[in-house]
Specification:
The complex is a heterodimer of chains A (about 80) and B (about 575). With about 80 residues, chain A is α+β, with helices and mostly antiparallel strands. Chain A has one domain (about 1-80): Ferrous iron transport protein A (FeoA) (SH3 type barrels, Roll). Helices cover about 20% and strands about 40% of the residues of chain A. Chain A has helices at about 25-35, 65-70; strands at about 1-5, 15-20, 40-45, 55-60, 60-65, 75-79. Chain A has a six-stranded antiparallel beta sheet with strand order 1-6-2-3-4-5. In chain A, a hairpin with a 2-residue loop joins strand 4 (about 55-60) and strand 5 (about 60-65). Chain B has about 575 residues and is an alpha/beta fold. Chain B has two domains: about 5-190, P-loop containing nucleotide triphosphate hydrolases (Rossmann fold); about 200-569, no CATH class. Chain B has a six-stranded mixed beta sheet, with helices on both faces. A two-stranded antiparallel ribbon of chain B has the order 6-8. In chain B, helix 15 runs antiparallel to helix 17 (about 385-410). The chains are: A alpha+beta (about 80), B alpha/beta (about 575). The interface of A and B includes residues 52 and 61 of A. The structure holds guanosine-5'-diphosphate (GDP). Guanosine-5'-diphosphate (GDP) binds next to helix 1 and helix 4 of chain B.
């Protein structure tokens, strides 16, 4: 079943597809610039520690997102 | 002369390509944001000279960030663009390329980091890429120089296929389409570096790894530094310089102005390189015999860490802690640079986005982060009384760094921004880059610090000779004796701290202080007024009001902490 969740709710090692970002153009542009765009496959690399940053892999790049920022990234995962 | 612009995403090797093309060495590091300000140099294309401008790295040309605005401005009067593209990150890089092709300027692509692409099992069809984009594409490995000759020879072929404007979305789609046609991914297993890479950002394994790395770094720095002092620099000074200076001393009239400036005081009839305090004795020994070895060892270790790609991972791990100080993890990078010298540390605060973060980081660097020169002197002089005294100084400074950060975070309005950053892959540091950087940094130290140290010691001696210090010392005595518990002569050292902190600690060494007094004085000195070089960059980076705020914070906190240490110890 496909579920829509926030990046912060993904498990480490899980892969999903980015669908939308909550927030204004600023957030959207910053994420897109680094290659996180709707339709892209995103794999979460680490388990968070408290409200620490979340690291994701997109293509061959790794990107660290602050906890607040990760919350704004909505992904679809197969569960 | 033709103006050629070097453009690309951050951290694609632009600085490295720039060095290759111009022969000018700029500092390349494995984290985004090395090039925040532009650098320019000249290069030869055939028989013609051209100006090469290293434009700040950008992801797009929408002029949304400061770097992008600068880039767009520069595009207006450039004659051609060398677009440096990271072969391991093609899609995102192509997005910028598509932006460039929309502008009316000839483009040539340097397909850099070609070596890593091969190792990662990425194959790129260069001919096909040229066909699809309509511009020349040359694979390069900037760190070794591979492909650079071909790149230069093909610059005249740079061209612009005149594509129609596309929206952001269309550009991404187009980048994806090109990627599918030119790139072939071979499936392969995780490399060892990738496994380590993941382990060092997961909190459970990452924190022990970070502690281990920092501990090892510290040990290596101390080991190399001490070894060099004990086996190279001290013997040279003692065996060769000492007899020479003794001879010079015997020619000069004792008690004369000249001798007290050049040689300084004799201690038991001998020159003592720490206590004599002449321009050619202590003046040379402090920067060369005590500080330079540590500058060397610090920058070797820092260079390796910068190039390996570990620092951004440390930034990710520390993000949580740093948030409590109103910063995000990135601020650790200027801080670490500050441990070498506060000047580059404060300049590196430019990689932070908001003014507020820059003010907080710059202030806590200049108060709580001792530079390598100061640390070397502390180890040399305070360390003689036992390691725990050195530890007290470090601990006090660390506490101040954290507490002050938190306080500033509370008083200054605003919120810290969320972190978004690329975590670069681990790379084997290239010996060439590390050595080159080390060399540049040592040369900068000798060029910038040595004259000020010599000047500082000369000024001290002249003022002593004219007895001006006695007046100053009497004036400030109540503060220094009552609050810090130091003899009034220590005022002079504090005042000299404005010129150079290492000289100031050196002066403390001539005062016969107890271990406790040394700890108080060295800590207060580290925290109080920044040295002149730091002051100048603070001023340049922050402007007058913020610099004054920052200086106020320094004076207050050094009084409080110095007083507290005096009371507790
Ligand atoms: N393996 C490899 N590493 C490279 C190459 N070019 C640059 N680097 C490394 O990539 C990192 C970023 O380079 P730098 O020149 O600072 O990038 P800039 O931010 O674009 O100026 C540094 O650690 C360089 O040593 C290359 O062709 N191959």
């Amino acid at each position: 079943m496909v579920e829509r969740i926030s990046l912060t709710d993904m498990n480490a090692g899980e892969t999903g597809t980015a669908v939308e970002f909550i927030g204004g153009r600023g957030v959207h542009n910053r994420l897109c610039a680094l290659g996180i765009r709707p339709g892209k496959k995103i794999t979460r690399v680490n388990a968070a520690f408290g409200r620490g940053p979340i690291i994701v892999r997109v293509g061959s790049t790794q990107i660290a997102l602050g906890f607040g920022m990760s919350y704004k990234v909505i992904v679809e995962v197969e569960r | 002369m033709k103006k050629i612009l070097l453009m690309g995403n951050p951290n694609v090797g632009k600085s490295a390509v720039f060095s290759r093309l111009t022969g000018i060495h700029v500092i390349a590091s494995n984290y985004p944001g090395t090039t925040v300000e532009f650098t320019q140099g000249t290069m030869k294309i055939g028989d013609e000279e051209a100006i090469l401008i290293d434009v700040p790295g950008t992801y797009g040309l929408e002029a949304t960030s400061k770097a992008e605005k600068i880039a767009v401005e520069m595009l207006k009067d450039g004659d051609a663009v060398i677009n440096v593209v990271d072969a391991t990150n093609l899609e995102r890089n192509l997005h910028l390329t598509l932006h460039l092709l929309e502008r009316n300027i000839p483009v040539i692509i340097a397909l850099n980091i070609w070596d890593d692409a091969k190792h990662k099992g990425i194959t790129i069809d260069v001919k096909k890429m040229e066909e699809l984009l309509g511009v020349p594409v040359v694979p390069t490995v900037a760190v070794t120089g591979e492909g650079i000759k071909e790149l230069v020879s093909r610059i005249p072929q740079a061209c612009n296929p005149k594509v129609a404007r596309r929206s952001e979305e269309e550009k991404w789609t187009e980048a994806g389409r090109i990627l599918d046609k030119v790139q072939l991914l071979q499936h392969r297993h995780h490399t060892l570096l990738e496994v380590i890479g993941d382990a060092s950002v997961k909190p459970l394994s990452g924190i022990p790894i970070a502690i281990l790395v920092m501990f090892a770094a510290f040990k290596v720095i101390r080991f190399i530094g001490e070894w060099l002092i004990g086996n190279v620099f001290e013997p040279i000074f003692e065996r060769f310089w000492q007899p020479l200076m003794m001879q010079l001393s015997s020619i000069l009239d004792p008690g004369s102005f000249l001798r007290s400036i050049i040689i300084g005081k004799l201690i038991d009839g001998e020159i003592d390189f720490v206590q004599s305090f002449g321009v050619l004795t202590t003046g040379l020994f402090v920067p060369i015999g005590m500080v330079l070895p540590y500058i060397f060892s610090f920058y070797i270790v820092l260079g390796v860490m910068e190039d390996s790609g570990y620092l951004p991972r440390l930034a990710v791990l520390l993000d949580n802690l740093m948030h409590r100080m109103g910063l995000h993890g990135w601020a650790i990078i200027p801080t670490l640079l500050g441990l070498g010298c506060n000047v580059p540390g404060i300049m590196a605060t430019r990689i932070l986005e908001s003014r507020r973060e820059r003010l907080i980081t710059a202030t806590i660097i200049s108060i709580g982060v001792p530079c390598a020169a100061l640390q070397a002197m502390i180890w040399g002089l305070v360390g003689e009384h036992g390691g725990r005294y050195v530890a007290i100084i470090y601990l006090s400074l660390f506490v101040v760094w954290v507490v002050l950060g938190r306080i500033l975070n509370m008083i200054l309005k605003g919120e810290s921004q969320g972190l978004i950053m690329e975590v670069p892959p681990y790379r084997m540091p290239s010996l060439q880059t590390v050595v080159k950087k080390l060399w540049m940094r040592m040369a900068a130290f000798l060029k910038e610090a040595l004259p000020i140290v010599l000047l500082g010691i000369m000024v001290v001696n002249i003022l002593y000779f004219l007895k001006i210090f006695d007046v100053l010392a009497d004036f400030a005595a109540p503060l220094i004796t009552n609050v810090f518990g130091l003899p009034k002569e220590a005022v002079i050292a504090m005042a000299i701290g404005f010129l150079r902190k290492d000289v100031a600690v050196g002066m403390l060494g001539t005062l016969d202080l107890t271990a406790k007094q040394l700890v108080v004085a060295a800590t207060a000195l580290a925290m109080s007024f920044p040295c002149i070089a730091t002051f100048v960059v603070l001023f340049k980076e922050l402007g007058i009001t913020d610099t004054l705020k920052s200086v106020l914070a320094m004076l207050i906190s050094s009084l409080i902490v110095g007083g507290l240490l005096n009371a507790i110890l």
